[in-house]
Design goal:
The chain is α/β, with parallel strands linked by helices. It has one domain: Rossmann fold, CATH 3.40.50.1820. 26% of the residues lie in helices and 16% in strands. It is built from seven helices and eleven strands. It has an eight-stranded mixed sheet with strand order 1-4-7-5-8-9-10-11, sandwiched between helices. Helix 5 links the parallel strand 8 and strand 9. It is globular and about 45 Å long.
């Protein structure tokens, strides 16, 4: 068996550089805000008992205290200038780094969209809201990306966010945030950290009360207002995280008049990423591409 540190390094390589990504860069010039260096080294938390998704294994990353972003540029002959920051899920405990990360970036590149894979801090920090440290990381990612817009050939007014599960929650939180969540570090932090659009795939924790009880009132940290960006959402009705998450959020968007598109499928469960299965919910990438085209984020066919 390949030694653990080597196996982890090879998995990260396969999830990034082999797909044409730029080297990962640290988001913060020093320690990330509030970090004490007391959670141990970053590690591969994948278990042999983890279920396969579409017949394949996946990479789980835990103990992230040095958040990074990895830029996946779209091929030059396809580059639309549109960019998406990708937030993997994992319950704010781990990151499903390939299933809901690098594989998504590869798909985005295939349709001419630049991608930025965010490795945000997990697990949940004791004494802090679950999303607090990740919110700092995703806000810092947006200002960093916008600071490189000219250099990277991207449109700073067409930068969205795409998240799965807890990453979908994080996407909605950054879309709702109206102030920088950390002390200003440098001139980049004067740029906008706000997404121009959001794509939420089986998002979690959007309701004020536990969604399993049927609550349709959104949580205060994802409050919808006039600045909430256009939104695309997908979920399966049998998702154990509960379809009320997207139903309640969609109602709030509708009341506000925010452009949105919602797809609810009868079956599919949770945690499929974009790997094709027998359930039609896994056709969501085609629906998302159509939506991006309808919003002028991709060229007309």
């Amino acid at each position: 068996m390949t030694p653990y540190p080597v196996r982890y390094a090879l998995a990260l390589l396969a999830a990034g550089i082999c797909l044409g990504a730029e080297p990962a860069v640290n988001l913060w010039p020093g320690a990330a805000p509030g970090e004490k260096g007391d959670i141990g080294p970053e590690k591969d938390t994948t278990k042999s008992t983890d279920p396969l998704i579409a017949g394949r294994g996946l990479l789980h990353i835990g103990n992230v205290s040095v958040p990074t972003m990895t830029f996946y540029p779209a091929p030059a002959d396809k580059n639309t200038g549109t960019t998406v920051v990708v937030c993997p899920g994992g319950g704010y405990y781990i990151l499903a780094y390939d299933l809901e990360g690098s594989e998504i970036c590869e798909w985005l590149n295939s349709i001419g969209v630049n991608a930025v894979l965010l490795k945000y801090r997990v697990p949940r920090r004791e004494g802090r809201p679950d999303y607090e440290a990740p919110l700092q990381d995703v806000q810092r990612t947006f200002v960093t990306v916008r600071s490189h817009a000219k250099e990277w050939g991207i449109n700073p007014d067409r930068i969205g966010v795409l998240g799965f599960s807890a990453g979908g929650n994080l996407s909605a939180v950054v879309s709702a945030s109206r102030a920088l969540s950390y002390p200003k570090v440098d001139a980049m932090d004067d740029l906008s950290f706000h997404p121009n659009f959001q794509i939420l795939i089986y998002p979690a924790y959007l309701m004020k009360d536990n969604a399993e009880h049927g609550s349709l009132e959104v949580a205060p940290e994802v409050t919808v207002d006039a600045q909430t960006p256009p939104t695309f959402m997908v979920m399966a009705e049998d998702d154990p995280v509960h379809v009320e998450n997207v139903l309640g959020y969609a109602i709030a968007l509708k009341k506000q008049g925010t452009p949105m598109e919602l797809h609810v499928y009868p079956t599919g469960g949770h945690g499929y990423g974009m790997r094709p299965t027998k359930d039609f919910v896994t056709s969501w990438p085609a629906r998302a591409a159509d939506w991006m085209q309808s919003r002028g984020l991709l060229p007309a066919k």
